[in-house]
Amino acid sequence: MSATDAIRARRSIKRFAERPVSRDEIETMLSAATLAPNHRLTQPWRFRKKFNAKKPFAIYIGRIDENKGCKELFSHFERYAVMYPHGLDLVLVGSAVLPVPKHPRIHHLGFLEDQDKYDAMAASELLIMPSYLESLSMVALEAWAMGKPVLANAKCDVLQGQCIRSNAGLFYANYAEFAEAMRAIDTTPSLQAALGSNGRAFFERHYSWPVLEKKYVDMLQQLSQESAPRTMEPAPGWFTRRRRTQHLFRKKKEPFDGRSLPN
Predict the structure, then answer these.
(1) Alpha carbon of 156 to those of 127, 140, 172: distances in Å?
(2) Distance, CA of 105 to CA of 186 (rounded, Å)
(3) Can you say how many angstroms the Cα of residue 148 is from the centroid of all Cα atoms in its chain?
(4) Do residues 226 and 176 make contact, with C-beta atoms less than 8 angstroms apart?
(5) pLDDT digits (tens, 9 = 90+) for 27-57
(6) What is the mean pLDDT of the chain?
(7) Cβ distance 182 to 58 under 8 Å?
(8) Three-state secondary structure along the chain?
(9) Integer distance in angstroms from the first to the last C-alpha of the chain?
(10) How far apart are alpha carbons 147 and 194 in whole angstroms?
(11) Structural domains of the chain sorted by starting position, each given as residue range(s) with its CATH number in brackets
């Protein structure tokens, strides 16, 4: 029987042995599972075990600063935590310039090594990007590469545009929209899965290595086929520029006789 036939003919018989599974067997299976290929070899369970993260959470990665929108994020999240006592926690990864509120559902982990950071992102339900001013958000792209939704600040045109083009994120302009977006992603697995799938496809379509490599190769080929531009004349030195400036200054001081415009 081929592997394809075995898959097609499989049946769920739900027969279980009447004996406990030993710890050695469990650890062997987990060890084998870690060999499966995944993005950056991330392991969500490893993060949860290392940092004792037992509840679902949203994650913010970056400098914790008012200029990054974190002050507004804290205000929104504290109100959200009151409205939804069983909702998501908030995990913060990065150096703090702004004081982090002492809240039982806000967990500041500080700066993390790359492996822990990617494990944390893989374990999260979504990435929050509260910044007002971003260009190309590398953290958002990393989240989409892992199949994670992004919740962005709508006051940042770039982040909002990325969410719209990718169809892989939601955005908020006030607390009500923030709370509803958090609740929707947390309580609607199909929405979370769809946004994550769209994000992964968006990343593969525009930012995967083969795509970027092809763009560079095409650009270099185009440049190699174009004729060289005309050589620019060297810029005048300091003394030449100064003589020109003095000449213009003297001409401006000449009296105007009313018969002709000065040059």
Answers:
(1) 16, 13, 10
(2) 15
(3) 9
(4) no
(5) 777 666 655 545 556 789 899 999 999 999 9
(6) 85
(7) yes
(8) CCHHHHHHCCCCCCCCCCCCCCHHHHHHHHHHHCCCCCHHHCCHHHHHHHHCCCCCEEEEECCECHHHCHHHHHHHHHHHHHHCCCCCEEEEECCECCCCCCCCCEEECCCCCHHHHHHHHHHCCEEEECCCCCCCCHHHHHHHHCCCCEEEECCCHHHHHHHHHHCCEEEECCHHHHHHHHHHHHHCHHHHHHHHHHHHHHHHHHCCHHHHHHHHHHHHHHHHHCCCCCCCCCCCCHHHHHHHHHHHHHHHHCCCCCCCCCC
(9) 94
(10) 9
(11) 36-214 (3.40.50.2000)
- Give the separation between CA 102 and CA 254, rounded to whole angstroms: 72
Residue 67 structure tokens? 């200029």
Give CA–CA dist 262/236, Å, rounded: 25
Q: pLDDT tens-digit profile of 58-74?
A: 999 999 999 999 999 99
**For tokens 């507004």, what's the residue?**
72
